Amino acid sequence: MEKLNLSGAGWSLARDKEALWYKEKNLYTYHCQTDTYKRDDDENILDDSSAGRLKISDLPVNPPTFGFDKLEEYKETDVSVPGTLDEYLWAKDSQNPLEDFGRYTGVSWWWRDITIPESWSGKRFVLSFGGVSYRAEVFIGETLVRYDAVSSTPFDIDITKYINAGETKRLAVRVTTPGGNMSWDDNTPLYWGESGVKVFPDHGFSGIDGDVVLYAYEDVFVNDVHIENTPDYINRTIKVHTEIINKSSSSKTADLTISVIDCDGNTIYKNTYQNENAGVGINVITKKISVPDAKLWDIHQGNIYTCRVKFVDTNETDFGFRWFTVEDYVSDKDADKSLGNARFTLNGRRVRLLSAISWGFWPTNGLYATAEMAEKNARNAI
Questions:
Q1: Which residue of 181, 190, 323, 355 shows the fewest CB atoms closer than 10 Å?
Q2: Burial code of 69-85, b = ≥16 C-beta within 10 A, e = fewer?
Q3: Side-chain half-sphere of 347: how many Cα atoms within 13 Å?
């Protein structure tokens, strides 16, 4: 697996004030009986020829009302991603920063050029979005390649058939926000345009609120590595779940290597399992391992490790060795509740839970936390 980080500077932003978004249907709503939005747990996880029961070619295409060829002419500002329209253009027209005058409801366009390295020839090109608020319609050139209607959730797009190695094309995201509340009350109903259809509630900010990364995969690749801690925290025993996707036409047999690396780059565990098999489609291989030399993750000692898995290609994830549970819980069905002494425990030690809450509002952009903000928010609780 190789990747290009498309986050940061290099993006452009323009509002599309003439877009009649409020007359458009939102294809994923509370009352839908069928899942018309392609979920990321769909068996065709990287096959965007379909979106649930709708093909991507069946979906409506909404170009800029001023035309793709005039995006640069209507550009209002340079932006970075993650980013929100509100942090760049709040109250631009009204010059009144009060909520009802400063916010923008409707369509905006976010775009930049992407170039596929020639060295990626023969591989699969996958765009990964950390989240878009609210609705996202993603275009390569002028071709719609993805429709996503669940705000601020990650999604992937296989764009292999839309762009070639060595080629440069425009990546454009049509972002639509139907409004949303601007208070701590985050369960206020939200309705879509003139249809009045209830959709998932959200705050009234809009933008690309997660990283955007372009990946290159072989036909067989490690899509995800998930760590499951176990009650045997004394021996630092974990389960490593490796999701392997095989997009070729036949099964693949190869060695699977699991490594655990500490924060200084030292490999403290490594083991190779020979001749593991990955059939066509999605495969999950689970291995239970023990790393007794590892340090436990604790409240004031966030010991983080990296688990790296190789099967044809390589993927990794960060994690901590820890076990959190409830002990001596007595259920409502038990007659004598006095026998219970329910308590939360972390690594066998009783703990009390404290929290800090942001209500989903963050300084500067309104929608997402930078790493510094998230850390400060967590430390305020302890």
A1: 355
A2: eebeebeeeebebbbbb
A3: 14
Within 8 A by CB and 6+ apart from 182, the residues are 99, 103, 203, 204
Nearest in space to 221 (alpha carbons), one of 121, 156, 122, 124: 124
The 10 Å Cβ neighbour count of residue 300 is 5
Q: Compute the distance between CA of residue 114 and CA of residue 277 in angstroms, rounded to an integer.
A: 35
Token output for 168: 């440069």
To which residue do tokens 């379909």 refer? 50
Question: Using CA atoms, how far apart are residues 140 and 174, in angstroms rounded to an integer?
Answer: 11
Alpha helices, DSSP H, located in the chain: 71-74, 85-89, 99-102, 371-379
d(CA 25, CA 45): 24
CA distances from 16 to 64, 68, 76, 105, 109 (A): 7, 11, 11, 10, 7
pLDDT by residue, tens only, the chain of 382 residues? 899 999 999 999 999 999 999 999 877 643 333 333 333 333 333 333 334 456 777 788 999 999 999 999 999 999 999 999 999 999 888 777 776 667 889 999 999 999 999 999 999 999 999 999 999 999 999 999 998 888 888 989 999 999 999 999 999 999 999 988 887 776 788 888 888 888 888 888 999 999 999 999 999 999 999 999 999 999 999 999 999 999 999 999 999 999 999 999 999 999 999 999 999 999 999 999 999 999 999 988 889 999 999 999 999 999 999 999 988 766 655 555 555 678 899 999 999 887 777 777 888 898 888 888 888 887 777 6
d(CA 315, CA 220): 12
pLDDT tens digits, 218-229 = 999 999 999 999
- Residues 191, 178 contacting (CB under 8 angstroms): yes
Let me know how long the chain is: 382
Neighbour tally for 316: CB within 10 Å: 15
SS3 100: helix
